[in-house]
Design brief:
41% of the residues lie in helices and 6% in strands. With 180 residues, it is mainly alpha-helical.
Length: 180
């Protein structure tokens, strides 16, 4: 604590020297009242405020969560997509707000369908109506399957959520939704 020459922090703050020593050594945590007195002695105020709640992520913000690989194939950013789903798993009350806005067209029919399938699954899991924008995403003509052996692709197809299968996207649910 900065003090004037010859002046003790205890004198300026009306907090005992022993209490200040215990706080400085980490033996005790100051009470709110003690902290307020110490800060006032320094010409500072102690203010409390509410912590802002965590913002709700939006599916619409994930339209760019993909890249083209060397072969020109769309590679989703599974980490960003799973992070979104994880948030909604922890905070299901955010589901409606998180999927309400239509994502901008991504430039990939596959990826637009993937986002629509996610919104539909989240809606169905939450027991709420699907967002209207998902009906405007044209279903894929050619199926999209994750890479792997024929046996791996068959296993993926059997564990694909119906919302994705309807859009001809065959990926295991565990790609986005963690198994409990």
């Amino acid at each position: 604590m900065d003090t004037k020459p010859g002046e003790q922090p205890a004198d300026r703050s009306n907090v005992s020297y022993a209490t200040i020593c215990r706080i400085e050594r980490g033996h005790i945590d100051p009470t709110t009242g003690t902290l307020r007195k110490l800060l006032n002695a320094l010409g500072e105020d102690l203010e409390f405020g509410r912590r802002r709640e965590e913002s709700i992520p939006e599916l619409a913000d994930l339209a760019d969560a993909w890249r083209l690989d060397r072969a020109g194939e769309v590679q989703p950013d599974w980490t960003r997509l799973r992070s979104f789903v994880d948030h909604l798993t922890r905070r299901p009350q955010d589901a409606i707000a998180a999927i309400a806005a239509k994502p901008q067209g991504s430039g990939s029919d596959f990826f637009d369908n993937l986002l629509a399938g996610m919104a539909e699954k989240i809606s169905d899991d939450s027991g709420v109506a699907r967002p209207a924008w998902t009906r405007r995403i044209r279903f894929l003509i050619d199926p999209w399957e994750s890479i792997g052996t024929p046996r791996m692709r068959a296993a993926a197809a059997t564990s694909t959520p119906p919302q994705f299968a309807a859009r001809k996207i065959f990926i295991p649910a565990a790609t986005l939704w963690r198994q409990n």
